[in-house]
Amino acid sequence: MILRGGYNVYPRELEEVIYSHPDVLEAAVVAVPDAMLGEEVGAAISLKPGSLETAESLQEYIKERVAAYKYPRKIWFLDELPKGPTGKILKREIARPVASDAI
Q1: What is the Cα–Cα distance from 53 to 57, expressed in whole angstroms?
Q2: Of 38, 45, 94, 102, which residue has the fewest beta carbons closer than 10 angstroms?
Q3: Closest listed residue to residue 12, CA positions, set 66, 51, 74
Q4: Nearest 10 degrees: Cα torsion 26, 47, 1, 72
């Protein structure tokens, strides 16, 4: 669970919305440290080959489907998300972006 300024945001709920986008291959919603709110919602996304989606367009897609406080303020793209031997995405190993890497 991500605590964003007193609101509870459940990563699985957002991941289901992100996976409903036709160009998304893999996604993981994680907490990103934030000076004002404590934690901010972030999403590491791997797109299908040939996709031309941008972080802004994905953010708008998600915004239309969830409450205003839930959508990820930080979105960054990875070629592949880190996985364990069983194929499960390892959220703790996802590198959080520096300010210039994500929107």
Answers
A1: 6
A2: 38
A3: 66
A4: -170
